[in-house]
Amino acid sequence: MRKHLSKKPLALLFGSLIALTSCGESTNKTCVLYEDGMDYVTSTKGTAESYAALTFDAIGGDEVMPIGGFYVPYASGGSVDGHAMPNFLTEDIFQTLEDCGINTFVYSVDRWVTGASNNNLVTALDLCEKHNIGYFIDTFEVKKNLGSHTEKFPVDDMDLSKLSQVIDEVSNKGQRKSVVGFLANDEPFSHELDNINAYMDKFYSLPNVQENNYEVYMNALTYWEGKNNFYGQNSPMTYDEYMKKYFSSKTHTKMLSVTQYPYTSENTDESQLTSLLFNQLAIYRSYAKKYDVSLWRMLQAGGQWNDTAEWIESVSPYPNEAELLFDVNTSLAFGAKAIQYFPLVQPLYFAYEKGGTYDFENRNGLIGADGNLTRWYYYAKRANTQIKAIDHVLMKSSNDGVLVHGNTANKFMVEEASLGDAYLAGESFRELTSIEGDDCMVGCFDYKGGTAVYVVNYSRKQKGNIELNFNNKYRYEVIQRGVSADVVGNYVPLTLDAGEGALIVLK
Fold this sequence. Notes:
single chain, TIM Barrel, 2 domains, 12 helices, globular
């Protein structure tokens, strides 16, 4: 469903920007707000390029981008060391997440068990349906057959005869519309893929799966260089070999969901983004295109998590707002068609602080384990507001690559990175002839045969003034901060906050 976008706020901002930056007739640069009857050149529209996008009726249909989270609301309660622990399965929590833009749950501490009451998951699914959230369900009956990092189950011993029955039980025979699919595994090792692929081949063949369009969710291991060894594996494996096996089932998962946490401290060094963000995004983009699947990005809401339930020292919170916006917007510029936050709700042990205390606010999660909203909730809400305003374009587009402008951006994105075919040499794309102003990257898209570009301010410290020059006087939709302006001219001037992005669609 096409969402209505407010035009007035950005129109006022954009009009002010034009008044300040337009060079007028002396440079033949023009850009004005569109009014009925205004002349402009219709941009060329060719045959639409193919693309892969995965979404669900439960969240609004084929133009809605999944915006998800790992570690979703759970039933808690009671107290821990004098701290009252909330029950997250409430109307208020789910409304709060909907207000933030969250529409997809991918992992929960709750697992469906046949024969149990499963009251927590039933409550969660009912609340999800009310708040337009899709849920990938973790089931004991499936998970017990898929193996683990430390144990390998023979594929021949896998019993999936009750799989159809379990699916009917979880979904109430298709009546629970918030069920969008089922969890296979998070970051599976190579030996686990034998069982998972066998499971998927059977899963996708089931009539109730086909009737309800259920999907399998997996989150892949992060990229590594060279060869890696896994439990139960006779020889090391390259990442390319891992991907080949990951997508080797007859009917494989429809997304490439990958984890990237580029921020490892407050004020992460610039060069670190080369290997932990730009390189990897380019690699994941290439595999998503190779296997014709939708690219899903798992990114960090915070950065201090106790994976081994140890009590660790708290440091200054990271990433900040500009860093999170940059992370989201860079992913979109590289063609991501889903954004996921880790963690969505902070598990209690992620709050363990050295000295025996708890940090519910400065470590991680959109919602702390104490039930309060963290800074990352508000950062994500801002990012998600923009996503919801532009997803109708991005979900229907093919990403053709990224342009890079500016000395710093070129140094860390081009000279020191290996972007492969994600990098578009020069500073032109179709009707776009050149880029001026501060450092930026420009994601280039075919949108239903036409042109769209996503401009991201490269700086995470300060605002950027950027001008896009075009080869004729066109009409454009400019979407920034969740609102839209309709403009006409041969260039588009933008002022972007640190890490901010704006979408330009040629009419």
